[in-house]
Specification:
single chain; 472 residues; alpha/beta; 7-stranded mixed β-sheet; 6-stranded parallel β-sheet
Length: 472
C-alpha cells in the first residue's frame, strides 16, 4: 500500500536570529523551501508514495494549526527540513506529528542534521535522519518503510538501534544534476512568495548548481561540498519556462555562485532570448567571474540584479577571510553592472578576524563609494561547521563548542555569538546599525530607488522596510 508523506517546512516562531538588525530578517521576503520540493519530486518519481508539502512559514501557521493540518493529511511519514536556526521549531513540529499519532514516522533532514547526526537522533520524536543531499536517500528510506524493512546499511540515512544512533554518510554527491526532476512548486501556494527587492511580482528560487569551489572561512554549506556541479543550460531554462507558465515572473538563483561557468551562463542567456521566456532573474556571483560582455548578455536575457560578496573594504581583512576579491576590480565590476542596467547588492561583514576600528571605517568608506544599489551588513558570526568556528575554538576566542551544546539541548533563548576578538557584541551591533544608516540615509540613494519603483505595492513594501531600518 502506498505511503502518505507530508513534508513540512517548520515555522520560524522560535528561530535563532542572525546578527543583523531585526528588520533585515523581518522584511527580506518569503521564499519557497526549494530543497523540500526537490525531495518531493524525486519521491514522486521513484516511489509510489503520495506526497504533500506544507510551508508553515509562508502560511504563518501556529502549532495548533500545524497539528490540525497533519491530522487532516493523515500521513504515514512526516519529513521536516531542519536548519540549526529552526531547530526548536523542527522539534516542536515533530512533537505535533507524534501527538497526532505515535505511529507516524518522523524524518529530519537538512544542514543541521548533516553537522549533528548523533545529537539529532537523540531527539525522542525523531525516528530517522537523512544526511547530505536527500533526494535519493529519502526515496530509498520510504521504500524500506513501505516494505517493512530496516534502514540498516542505507547510505545517507540514520536511525536508532536499541537506543544507539546508527548512520552512514552518503557515498558521494549527485554528479548529474540534470537527472533530478524539477522541484514541484505546484505543491505550494506560489502567490505567497515574494521579496523586498522584487518589483512586486510573485517570486521563486531556483538552484542551477551545487557546491562552491571558493574557500571563504565563514562559509556554512558543508553538506553540498566544494566541488562545483552544474545543470545544463537547457535544463535550467526548461525550469524557468515552467516557472513562467505557473505565473511566476521573478526568479532568484540560490546557487552559491551561479556564474562560475561563463559559457553556461551565456548559453542560458541565449536560450532565454531565443525562446522569449520573459522572466526577471537575479543571481549570486563572484567578482572574479564577471566581465562587461557577460553583464551585457545577462541583462539582455532578463537579469536585473546581482549579489556580490565583498565582505570588507580593507584588503588585509579580505585576505584573512580567504575571500579572493580585489577591491579595485570590485569597483570596476560594480561600475560595469550599473552601465549594463543591472542592480547590485553588496554583502559586508563587520567584526572580522584581525579587524579593528580602523578597518571597520575602511569598510564603511568603501561601500559608500562603491555605488551599490543595496548593501547587506552583518556582524561576523562563526557558524557551526565553518573554518572560522574551528579557529575560534583553537584560539580561545570561542570558549566552548556552544553550537554542539545547543544541538544537544536546544533552548528558545539561544543567541549565536559574534567574533569578539576586538569588539563586544554590543559594540558590533552599534557598528552594524551605524553602517546601515550611513548607506541607506543618503538622499541620492533614496531618490534613485524612488525613481525605479514600478508600482504602488512595490513602493509601500520598500518604504516600510526602509523606514524601519533607518529609524532603529
Amino acid at each position: 500500500m502506498p505511503l502518505k508523506v507530508l513534508l513540512i517546512y517548520p515555522p520560524d516562531l522560535h528561530m535563532i536570529r542572525t546578527n543583523v538588525p531585526s528588520v533585515v530578517d523581518e522584511e527580506t521576503g518569503c521564499y519557497p523551501p526549494i530543497g523540500l520540493l526537490y525531495v518531493a519530486a524525486f519521491a514522486v518519481r521513484h516511489t509510489d508514495s503520495e506526497v504533500e508539502v506544507l510551508d508553515a512559514q509562508a502560511e504563518k501557521l501556529n502549532y495548533d494549526q500545524i497539528e490540525e493540518r497533519i491530522r487532516r493529511s493523515g500521513p504515514d511519514v512526516v519529513g521536516i527540513q531542519t536548519l540549526t536556526f529552526t531547530l526548536c521549531d523542527a522539534i516542536m513540529t515533530a512533537r505535533s506529528a507524534k501527538k497526532v499519532s505515535p505511529e507516524i514516522k518522523v524524518v529530519l533532514g537538512g544542514p543541521h542534521v548533516f553537522l549533528y547526526p548523533e545529537e539529532t537522533l537523540s531527539i525522542p520524536e525523531v525516528d530517522y535522519i537523512i544526511l547530505g543531499e536527500g533526494e535519493k536517500s529519502f526515496a530509498d528510506l520510504l521504500n524500506r518503510i513501505r516494505d517493512g524493512k530496516s534502514a540498516a546499511g542505507l547510505a545517507g540515512a540514520g536511525y536508532r538501534e536499541n537506543g544507539i544512533p546508527r548512520y552512514i554518510f552518503p557515498e558521494d554527491f549527485v554528479a548529474d544534476l540534470d537527472s533530478l526532476p524539477h522541484p514541484m512548486r505546484e505543491l505550494l501556494p506560489i502567490k505567497r512568495y515574494g521579496s523586498v527587492l522584487a518589483q512586486g511580482n510573485i517570486v521563486t528560487t531556483l538552484i542551477s548548481s551545487r557546491g562552491c569551489p571558493f574557500r571563504c572561512i565563514f562559509c556554512d554549506r558543508p553538506h553540498l561540498g566544494k566541488k562545483f556541479r552544474f545543470r545544463s543550460a537547457a535544463n535550467v531554462v526548461e525550469e524557468m519556462k515552467i516557472c513562467r507558465d505557473l505565473g511566476i515572473r521573478e526568479i532568484i538563483f540560490y546557487d552559491d555562485t551561479m556564474t562560475i561557468r561563463r559559457d553556461r551562463v551565456l548559453e542560458i542567456c541565449r536560450l532565454l532570448r531565443e525562446q522569449k521566456i520573459d522572466v526577471l532573474w537575479d543571481v549570486r556571483a563572484h567578482i572574479n567571474t564577471m566581465d562587461a560582455e557577460l553583464l551585457k548578455q545577462m541583462r539582455a536575457a532578463g537579469c536585473v540584479r546581482i549579489h556580490f560578496g565583498i565582505e570588507s573594504g580593507n584588503p588585509d581583512v579580505v585576505k584573512a577571510l580567504r575571500k579572493n576579491v580585489n577591491l579595485d576590480r570590485a569597483r570596476e565590476i560594480f561600475r560595469l553592472s550599473r552601465k549594463a542596467g543591472i542592480q547590485t547588492l553588496a554583502y559586508f561583514i563587520l567584526g572580522n578576524p584581525t579587524e579593528t576600528e580602523k578597518e571597520i571605517e575602511d569598510t564603511i568608506r568603501y561601500f559608500l563609494h562603491l555605488d551599490a544599489d543595496y548593501v547587506h551588513i552583518a556582524a561576523m558570526t562563526p557558524f557551526p561547521g565553518t573554518e572560522l568556528y574551528r579557529l575560534g575554538l583553537e584560539k580561545g576566542i570561542i570558549k566552548k563548542d556552544y553550537w554542539r551544546e545547543y544541538a544537544k539541548n536546544p533552548t528558545e533563548d539561544f543567541a549565536p555569538m559574534v567574533w569578539e576578538e576586538h569588539f563586544t557584541a554590543a559594540e558590533l551591533h552599534e557598528h552594524v546599525l551605524r553602517a546601515y544608516k550611513a548607506f541607506y540615509r543618503r538622499p541620492s540613494l533614496i531618490i534613485r530607488n524612488l525613481l525605479r519603483v514600478r508600482s504602488l505595492r512595490e513602493l509601500i513594501k520598500k518604504a516600510r522596510a526602509g523606514i524601519k531600518l533607518i529609524t532603529q
